[in-house]
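Researcher: Go.
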Amino acid sequence: MDQQEFHRLIEKYLDGRASAEEEQLLLNYFNSFQSAGEWDETKLGNKQQLEDKMLARLQNSVRQSAEGSNNQVFSMFSFKRVAAAAIFLLAAGGMFYVVSKKTADKQLVVNKSQVKHDANPGGNRATLTLADGSTYVLDSAKNGVLAKKGNVSIKKEKDGQVTYAAETNEPANENVSALNTMSTKAGGQYQLLLADGTKVWLNSESSIKYPTAFKGRERTVELTGEAYFEVAKNAAMPFMVKVNNMQVRVLGTHFNIMAYDNENAIKTTLLEGAVKLTVGNHASVLKPGQQGRVTKSGDINIVDVDAEQAVAWKNGYFEFDRSSIREIMNQLARWYDIKVTYEGKIPDDEYVGKIERNVKLSQVLHILELSHVHFKLENKNLTVTP
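Model: Structure:
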């Protein structure tokens, strides 16, 4: 196969025009070079340019398919059949291995018999603790008014949301500034509407502390884990999120904060408006489409990102963009409430793809097993091996 034919075949594959025979030919061709460990640029062209081109086309296909269908989020995979948008593997040596839908379907049949246990996806589960110590398990509590504090009514809505709403414009007759806490365990998520109109989406293994109603010059909340915020505008009372020793200050904007202890940085991603990150004496302002990464040492790094990927979890998806298997496992562990251990040398492969969060764990693992990793799931313990 010469370079011209090779690139023509890639174009057909990415456009969805390749036949089953051509898809298999391309996969075999990639495999032959992956086994040999060499890349002949005189025959195949510049490897980095080809990698960037294929990655850009695949990411564009994800977005276009997501906009055009509720059931498919990638042209190469159907969620109804294999529960995944696509998995695009960049091997440690830089070689591409592209998994087609037909190939995935065939291998899934083989892998399916190996599953002895499974795990259901998470759902709307959380605990609400009021300042007076009253506790409500929200997944079992009845819809309607949970409590009243001053003139603020606290309600559980039927759509997996707790709302705080003032019933009158009169000042509260008790201390509504005392902190309430909403928390989720592994496998849980919940929504919250604060008294000022700010909307919060709380991810798994997370908690947020906030007052029943905001007073004073600032609206301050405290976060652990991950949450997405749509802050109600109020120039006279800025909104502030405290995460460990970091502060995110806003007036009205949409942003996501991921601050799990087992991640290598606290990541604040801005979708709309502007936010100011402050760590000690260091401060940085984010623009839409930027992510501020605060390292363990307190450094702030600003990078351009696809902001929609950072909030994919809020919209019901896992989305990977050159994510390692360990980064993916962190997400799966939190959502499926499992413990992950590793045996042997795990390849440094990277994944690009989009997977629905409402499918069973086995369906996600089947897709990942098409690369260089294998899994053994027993009860809630998942072992990852080469």
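Model: The first helix runs from residue 3 to 15.
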